Amino acid sequence: MKSELELAVRYYETDQMGIVHHSNYIRYFECGRSDMMQKYGLPIEVIEREGVMLPVVSVEARYKTPARMGDTIRIVSRIDKVPMAKLEVNTEIFNQEGILLCTGKVVLGFIDAVTRHPVRCPRNLADLIAANI
Question: Fewer C-beta neighbours within 10 Å, C or N terminus of the chain?
Answer without folding.
Answer: C
